[in-house]
Write a structure and sequence with these properties.
Largest sheet of chain B: none
Strand content of chain B: under 5%
Shape of chain B: elongated
Number of strands of chain B: 0
Structural class of chain A: mainly beta
Strand content of chain A: 35-45%
Order of helices and strands of chain A: HEHEEEEHEE
Structural class of chain B: mainly alpha
Radius of gyration of chain B: 29 Å
Helix content of chain A: 10-25%
Oligomer: heterodimer
Number of helices of chain B: 13
Shape of chain A: elongated
Largest interface: A-B, 56 and 63 residues
Distance between the termini of chain B: 93 Å
Number of helices of chain A: 3
Largest sheet of chain A: 7 strands, antiparallel
Strand order of the largest sheet of chain A: 1-2-3-4-5-6-7
Distance between the termini of chain A: 96 Å
Radius of gyration of chain A: 31 Å
Number of strands of chain A: 7
Chain lengths: 223, 325
């Protein structure tokens, strides 16, 4: 049989040869020479794998007084009196079943938590929650009624004018409101590892945003 | 007097010795060059002279170390998982065959971390034997791999909780190298990374990704941003080209001294593109303090260009061509 190799094929073969030489370097476990290992004597008596419940749980109670809402970004909440739960708790048993619960500032405006459970090396399910609140200002001013709703309207005594200086009711109609944005995210996940060389997962997340932002617009006024 | 002089000489000698004696990561590094260590380890790996009793052989000497024993608090020390190293070659799965290392500890074993004389690729070949799943399948093309970053530069496995795997400490680990981003996240307008409310891996995959930029979790910058900023995704009836093209044209996602993480303030930001004709081509030097003395100038007061063009991310209004409604 006659076999012809063009330059391109030769280049590919040469590249494959280089690649396999590169791949062969290192300590890839699949290449380990275990022919002399007597695994029946590898009982690992001294291995003290952690079982049972371990970890930390903390609760916190705090008081703050601030004259600027933006401070709440760093404090994690704008409540004067705040309570929170922190947790980092793990459970594991001899059969490999395990569970873990993590919580950070749970109960405050900026917080997160995750609960996961499963069997090590087989499957894992998890549920998670994250809330991020961005505090902008508590001194935003507007003359519009219905802030936060789908419809904004001007007060009945509003004086329409072409410039703010001519809007005589502006100063009396302005009122302050809080501007912040709260994001709440919930998630569910499942992960499966086969004994063969494959694994799969599915994750679902939903985030809800609620809050106020500024906007502007131009309007035509017939006088 | 003579005694004092002798004491002084001894003190100086001790001081000189402490300066001149180099510190080694491992015992063998004092006697062997890094090349000799690597050759020996490759040879040992090929021969496969594993210990007679696995971890029990290693722990005869190493169980005194709290750090060694801390392995059993984490997944790599799990004796109840078929995927753990403990179900296979145990300590020697990562550290290589024992060979004659037990005779005084002089023969090299595979060591990890910044003090290891093995290069990152050799160290990582051990980790990548098992950790080759879809989150790490792009490792070889990743920025970290190209920069010769070893897995052990970021990860710790002899511990109950790896700091880079905890959201409370992840940002701290990343910013120990990424100092420019560390500065950015502390600017007045930034994603809430400085309080660990968000973490670097919300947007980046440090193990590499299909993304064309910065190993992002989605295939490009905009898709990554849309994961949280879904209202910007569109498609919109009237689109703003730089918005659909690349969010970082206007924003610096790590943080900025300007509002909304903008790279510059309006009107100058807008005028970087809109400067060829009409009212956008005029220079505006008014005081841009919100509500300050702006001489009733709509171009510099309030929200500047956005006073009129408020729908800068795109509009669905039938008459929204100028992004005004």
């Amino acid at each position: 049989m006659k076999c012809k190799l063009n330059v391109f094929t030769l280049a590919m073969l040469a590249q494959a040869g280089i690649m396999s030489a590169v791949m062969a370097q290192g300590f890839d476990l699949s290449q380990a020479n275990t022919s002399k290992v007597k695994f029946d004597k590898w009982v690992c008596k001294a291995c003290k794998a952690e079982t049972g419940v371990n970890g930390n749980i903390g609760v916190g109670l705090g008081y703050q007084h601030s004259d600027d809402l933006r401070a709440a970004n760093a404090m994690g909440t704008d409540n004067e009196l705040a309570a929170k739960l922190d947790a980092d708790v793990r459970y594991s048993n001899e059969q490999g079943y395990n569970a873990e619960f993590n919580a950070d500032n749970l109960g405050m405006d900026n917080s997160r938590a995750q609960l996961s459970a499963g069997q090590a090396g087989h499957y894992q399910v998890n549920a998670n929650f994250r809330q991020i609140t961005t505090f902008d200002t508590d001194n935003a001013l507007t003359p519009y009624l219905g802030v936060g709703s789908d419809q904004l309207s001007l007060p009945n005594n509003w004086v329409t004018a072409g410039s703010t200086s001519a809007m005589t009711q502006l100063a009396t109609d302005l009122y302050a409101f809080d501007m912040d944005l709260k994001r709440q995210r919930y998630g569910l996940g499942f992960e499966y590892q086969s004994e063969q060389l494959w694994q799969t997962y599915i994750n679902y997340e939903r985030e809800q945003k609620k809050g106020l932002k500024t906007s502007s617009g131009s309007s035509l006024i017939n006088r | 007097m003579k005694k004092t002089s002798t004491q002084l000489t001894l003190g100086l000698l001790a001081c000189l010795l402490s300066i001149s004696t180099p510190t080694y990561a491992s015992k063998w590094d004092a006697k062997m060059t890094p090349e000799q260590v690597e050759t020996t380890l490759i040879d040992k790996f090929a021969k496969g002279s594993y210990s007679p009793k696995g971890a029990d052989s290693c722990l005869m000497c190493h169980k005194k170390s709290d750090k060694v024993m801390a392995l059993f608090q984490g997944p790599h020390g799990a004796t109840n998982s078929s995927k753990s190293p403990m179900a296979g070659l145990q300590c020697e799965a990562c550290h290589g065959p024992m060979g004659k290392h037990n005779r005084g500890g002089n023969e090299p074993m595979i060591a990890f971390g910044p003090k290891s004389t093995l290069d990152a690729e050799m160290q990582n070949s051990v980790c990548m034997s098992c950790h080759m799943d879809d989150d790490r399948m792009n490792w070889d093309d990743s920025h970290h791999a190209n920069a010769d970053v070893a897995c052990a530069s970021c990860h710790q496995i002899h511990t109950a909780a790896d700091p880079v795997m905890s959201k409370d400490t992840e940002v701290e680990v990343c910013t120990s190298c990424h100092t420019q981003q560390k500065a950015d996240i502390n600017k007045r307008s930034s994603h809430p990374l400085k309080w660990d409310q968000m973490v670097c891996s919300d947007c980046h995959n440090p193990h590499g990704s299909d993304s064309t930029d910065a190993d992002l979790v989605k295939f490009d910058i905009n898709q990554t941003c849309y994961s949280c900023h879904a209202e910007k995704r569109g498609p919109k009836l009237w689109e703003h080209a730089p918005v659909t093209e690349n969010c970082v044209t206007c924003h610096n996602p790590h943080g900025s001294v300007n509002d909304a993480m903008l790279k510059a303030r309006a009107p100058q930001l807008c005028q970087q593109c809109h400067a060829s004709d009409g009212h956008a081509s005029n220079p505006y030097f008014g005081n841009t303090n919100m509500g300050g003395q702006v001489n009733n100038n709509a171009f510099t007061g309030g929200r500047s260009c956005l006073n009129c063009h408020s729908q800068v991310h795109g509009s669905n209004h039938p008459s929204g061509k100028l992004l005004q409604r």
